Amino acid sequence: MTFTIPIDNGDALKNAETDSQRTLYPYVTGTSIVAIKYKDGVLMASDMGGSYGSTLRYKNIERVKAIGKHSLLGASGEISDFQEILRYLDELVLNDNMWDDGNSLGPKEVHNYLTRVMYNRRNKFNPLWNTLVLGGVKNGQSYLGMVSMIGVSFEDNHVATGFGNHLARPILRDEWHADLSFEDGVKLLEKCMRVLLYRDRSAINKLQIAKITEEGVTVSQPYSLKTFWEFQAFHNPTAGAQGSW
Amino acid sequence: MTKQHANWSPYDNNGGTCVAIAGSDYCVIAADTRMSTGYSILSRDYSKIHKLADKAVLSSSGFQADVKALQKVLKSRHLVYQHQHNKQMSCPAMAQLLSNTLYFKRFFPYYAFNVLGGLDEEGKGCVFTYDAVGSYEKVGYSAQGSGSTLIMPFLDNQLKSPSPLLLPAQDAITPLSEPEAVDLVKTVFASATERDIYTGDKLEIMILKADGIRTEVMELRKD
Predict the structure, then answer these.
(1) Is the ipTM value over 0.95, yes or no?
(2) B122: containing domain
(3) What does the UniProt keyword field contain (chain B) (predicted)?
């Protein structure tokens, strides 16, 4: 009873003609998104950088957008695919509004829709190269979830994409607690974003924090974090190190 | 000149272990709640157990997006069944449906490792174990997922299954009582958690009996 599935890239997919019809690698990418649930709803932070490989090409990209009345969508990965997803969601929200029945799509519904979209693109071997964070509040219930480019999704009290998953999540696991105040939530997110600034080469020091509550969405103006570079370890990083580390 | 391809795989393994044990009038289905990717943990509280029908509970580990899609397909097929036959699907019926659903994608499989547990038409516990493309077998107990290789030999030792070669065919249902079976499950998961990095955080146990379903949760090591 053993059927093993090959997990590496299949040879059947290397045909040049069919390759031009599907996404092979990302071009302009955004780095981490970090988001937490707090007392009144959800806070989501991202920087405004768009990298073109190792070049920091764009420095004014908004990677967190409001969706309908109750949700916030943050994206890391390919920026053009994020824009396409926003177009899909525009149509979804438009059709929802056209019913004119007083009901509106909540964050859970949008998250489910996005999961299905990402999974179906993965099934066609033409993924949308993003990891998405969906947060929102509806009827007093906060919601926060994540979808990856192959359709893996889950919800939690705090999520982070890309490098954020490695660097921010441990901080959040230690310091997040239920019913954070707005100020404490922002401080916690800034702590995470600062670590990412120091350690993620594609992060830039220009960030936005978006807030969603029952009342609605607020996206802050872009601002920078204070950084401290006088740590001993930064001064002479290779002192005492053997070899090339 | 071959183009450089980014290594993109449509599959990922989100880890985790599932176990089920069949008793004379009960069935125990258990799974850990850790969801991982590579060496990172995505969630410490993700349930791998899903009730498909009153008497059929599915537990699956593997690639979580495929598992979710598989559940949705089975749930919707069950709904149609209920509309057409005015009754819930029995566990053996669900077992066949799951097998057929998996084989349907034989050439782009659901990367899901399933254990289906429940009560058969006579009220006896039944466990069905699967591979990713639908080959299945009715057994007295089974483990699937990242910790299965650690757990299965121990279950073999403890649950003394009669040889399937015997004639007349003997049931592999364990004579253990329900509390003993639940205790055994807790023991095997505590052990698997020690050595399997993808198993841990919390253990979710569902006990199915004729009068209903009970759920228990136990903490596991989080490292």
Answers:
(1) no
(2) 15-217
(3) Cytoplasm, Nucleus, Proteasome
Q: Do A3 and B133 touch (CB under 8 A)?
A: yes
Mark yes or no for CB contact A8/B40 under 8 Å. no
Residue B4 belongs to a domain: no
Spatial CA neighbour of B20 closest among B201, B159, B164: B159
Closest chain A residue by Cα to residue B1 = A16
Shortest distance, CA A230 to any CA of chain B (angstroms): 31
- Do the chains contact at B42 and A165, CB–CB below 8 Å? yes
Chain A hits for B1, CB-CB cut-off 8 Å, are none
A23 catalytic, yes or no?
yes
Q: Which two tokens stand for residue A157?
A: 């009290």
H-only helix segments in A106-181: 107-123, 163-175
Q: What is the pLDDT of residue A7?
A: 53
Residue B174: predicted pLDDT? 80
Q: With beta carbons under 8 A apart, name residues in chain B contacting A165.
A: 40, 42
The pLDDT, as a whole number, for residue A139 is 94
**Local confidence band at A181 (pLDDT 50, 70, 90 cut-offs):** very high
Domain count for chain B: 1
Q: Residue B5 domain-assigned?
A: no
Residue B8 lies in a domain: no
C-alpha A113/C-alpha A109 separation (Å) is 6
* B20 touches B173 (CB < 8 A): no
Confidence check: pLDDT of A14 > 70: no
CATH number for the domain that contains residue B121: 3.60.20.10
Q: Is residue B9 part of a domain?
A: no
Place of tokens 């290397």: A14
